[in-house]
Amino acid sequence: MSNLTEPEKKILDAARKVFEINGYAGARMQEIADEAEISKASLHYYFRSKENLFERIFDETMTDFMQLVSTWNDDSEDWEAKLRRFICEFFSFLKTKSLLFIIGEINRNPDLLLSRRKKSKPKAKFIEYFERLQANGKVEPVNMYVIYIFMHSLCSYPILNSRMFQMTTGLNNHDFEQFMKEYPDQVADLLIFSLKRGLKETR
Amino acid sequence: MSNLTEPEKKILDAARKVFEINGYAGARMQEIADEAEISKASLHYYFRSKENLFERIFDETMTDFMQLVSTWNDDSEDWEAKLRRFICEFFSFLKTKSLLFIIGEINRNPDLLLSRRKKSKPKAKFIEYFERLQANGKVEPVNMYVIYIFMHSLCSYPILNSRMFQMTTGLNNHDFEQFMKEYPDQVADLLIFSLKRGLKETR
DNA sequence: ACCTTTGTTGACCATTTGGTCAAACCATAT
DNA sequence: ATATGGTTTGACCAAATGGTCAACAAAGGT
């Protein structure tokens, strides 16, 4: 399956860790080598260059991300339960793989997205699904692009910026952790309610 | 007022620009000097070191940010209008000063926040204000920390990650721009509605 | 005119860092 | 044992980069 040798996996794990913390420019090949418990020369034996290693991590993250985001099987499950489950899984994923450095690198070099435009239509399924429900009168007529962006923002940003939120809310580690455990359900509540009642008072 | 000489201002503008795009590690003193149209030696004449320059930018951004976020004058204005105006102003601010690199640096070195903990209680006014309204029965009993985080996430993330949203929505530049122009009002609608009706069905 | 203070810069330096390479190491087959 | 092919690494290199400095220019006061 994974098609990767043991040392390659170890290196990729180390590289992800170092890149996520330091970004491309701040990452050091020596640090990646140390983290993978090999010499810098060995690191270059497995991966030609820093650029090469970065591309592997970037591609892997984007692929996983796109795959998760475009997962939306059209089973018969209740749409509310489906949405809630999706939000919780999405949130868990974001805690695992930090998108911060990915976003940073994309901002620095937008071409990184161009190369993947072909295989990425993640919004399609999600939005099409709810537009269908909308047509059937099951949910309110709200702009689904807005809902889509709301969902991403509400799930991603609190993780990206958790440090500042912890500071500004003044919660201690334990309370904040508890808060974040309940958080995805609050997001689900909000989005479900919005889909059922719209974004504002109907006049 | 500004207490800064002309060349200092020019350098700080240049530095902000370069740091925002490249982060601390990726920023080059030469590039900042070029952007400010002076020599690298002159740059060091005005600002001892890269670290020093970074601190200036970081502090300035954090100060502006905290000041904006903690602005919440207790005038008699309708709370809905007040919230809507705040969201629009917040959104405009975030378009001007990119928080992406700030968040990255904080993640890399959380101590950057510790030094400023004293002068920062930005949540206080906002949350206290709405908790007071809540006590008076003007808004629904929802967790105000959640509302606070929702507001920040909804305003910040679409700007941070605008490139990916533009790609995944498939909107062209013009349509996306239009979409983002209407966006803050949608956020305001949602939050106002949530405060008036709660986050989910009352049972 | 001369001096002092402030600003400006090319040339230079020390360190860091991505990347290379030849030599050594190790397993396995012959 | 010897050869072979993959793996590992210390030593090394060239380029990039933050920072310094002496020399020079500009401005203003006397």
Assign the CATH topology of the largest domain in chain A: Tetracycline Repressor, domain 2
* Shape label of chain A: globular
Proportion of strand residues of chain A = under 5%
Largest interface: A-B, 59 and 59 residues
The first-level CATH class of the largest domain in chain A is given as Mainly Alpha
Number of strands of chain A: 0
Q: What is the CA–CA distance across the termini of chain A?
A: 56 Å
Helix-strand layout with pairing:
2 copies of one chain form a homodimer.
Chain A: H1 6-26, H2 29-35, H3 40-46, H4 50-69, H5 79-96, H6 100-108, H7 111-114, H8 122-135, H9 144-160, H10 162-169, H11 173-197
Chain B binds a DNA duplex (30 and 30 nucleotides) through residues 7, 28-30, 38-42, 44-46, 48-50.
Describe the overall structure.
The structure is a homodimer of 203-residue chains. The longest helix of chain A has 25 residues, at 173-197. Chain A contains eleven helices and no strands. Chain A has 203 residues and is mostly helical. The mean pLDDT of chain A is 91. The first copy, chain A, folds into two domains: 1-47, Orthogonal Bundle (Arc Repressor Mutant, subunit A), CATH 1.10.10.60; 54-197, Tetracycline Repressor, domain 2 (Orthogonal Bundle). The first copy, chain A, has helices at residues 6-26, 29-35, 40-46, 50-69, 79-96, 100-108, 111-114, 122-135, 144-160, 162-169, 173-197. The interface between A and B is large, with 59 and 59 residues. Chain B binds a DNA duplex (30 and 30 nucleotides) through residues 7, 28-30, 38-42, 44-46, 48-50.
